[in-house]
What does this fold into?
Amino acid sequence: MTRNSCHVISFFFLVFVLMSCSVLKKTYTPLKKYDSTSLKKDYDVFRIIIERKHPSLYWYVSKSHMDSIFDTYRNNITDSLTDQEFLWHILSPVAHEVRCGHTTVRKSKIRERWEKKAKLSMFPLSLKLWNDTLAVVRSLSNSDTLFKRGFIIKSIDGVPDSEMIRTMKQSLSLDGYAENVNTVRISNNFPLLHRYIFGLRKKYQVEYLDLNGERKTDSVACYDPMKKDSVSKKRLKTQKTQVAKSKGRNEKHRKFSVDSTGTYAILSVNTFSNGQLRSFFRKSFKEIEERKIEHVVIDIRSNGGGKVSLSTLLTKYVSRVPFKVADSVYSTSRTLRPFWRHTQHAILNEAFFYMLSYRKKGMRHHISRLENKTYKPKEKHHYSGNLYILTHGPTFSASTLFCNVLKGQEKVKLIGEESGGGWYGNSGIIIPDFILPNTKLRLRMPLFRVVQSKHSPDRFGKGVPPDVQVGYSMDALLKGRDLKMEKVIELIKTTNK
It folds into this structure.
């Protein structure tokens, strides 16, 4: 190697090191304001990507309505905003209007990394939402002895409960009009959602009904995880982590159990993405067959979807008849151009486009495998006994495909609440992130429309309904009861009489 070559290599190595250092030193400033010009540029990129690449933009709303929404929120950008104000008050309400559960606006990656270290302060009460009721589940602070489980929240800082619920729902995505998924999202994330949408305060004035139904108003300080109260929280978190590790890494994704009498088995499947599901399904149904278990419960209440292939595999183990997944699966385009520079993993997503789809008629590009293939039930370890499928709002995407096929089959009952995923169909398959140039916020958006096989046209825009409706109640909250599982056990006992 010549001396000049060594100098060239050394030069580029130095440049690489300096660039790496600059990246490492890059910090996130949460209070940074972006001027209206920069925000409007991001907004225009956001709008044109949705208009040109979303496969179902006008599925539930007219073009004139969507144009009006786009124009209204652009006109609302009159001053500088932080990236989070821009996300929650401008972009997310627009994404909500598309009524596609896979179309969301996400924080920038640098914001996500910052939040993991920052330990954000937030509204101090964890709340449960059902129907139009917001009830206290617990206080995040150990020192709070005032707010008890079951107290009904009527307003926070003068904002009525109905207005809070409506505003939060309008900032969250959904399939069509299946709002049950957002009821659960609000329940699971109320403290942080309240901070993002309504802002952070040192103290909140909370109007509530106590357990005797008496209306009261008290102030409560925001929850700060950095205070000494967090020591016990940290210890508790460490204990939970140790317990989780001892149970196995995959148990949070799926779990199999048989009741003490051997009467029924429960498969809790919380995702179709992780957890070594192929071997899990095989081993579980093999044990069910060997033990001759007559009742099986598949709990997909928390299953937000994942790989269609894994959802289809589970369906093959329990379907009584051959089935199709979808009537049509198509995209309006076969390329991410001209948005490559805005797309995360653009080359990989582009490759998937070409491998999966082909042009069928007009401007649509179809995935024929999902449209044309009829799947046969498995012969080995197939289960054809009494099947109970537990559903809820978070039952979404690929888990909705599972519900759609099984609904109405012999000895199958869906129990719980309407799924959050649309029964008629939804959009998904390939779901890339598009990065906005200035704020670096990420638009996560699907590229294929899926119309389910044997869907119900009369429930257009709604989720898959249960055969046995089991909702929520104050008694369930106060006593920690699982009403849906209780109903299954009741049905099993009735069947065995």
Summary: The CA atoms of residues 358 and 365 lie 5 Å apart. DSSP finds 15 helices and 20 strands in the chain. The mean pLDDT is 88. The chain has three domains: 36-108, 125-225, 247-496.
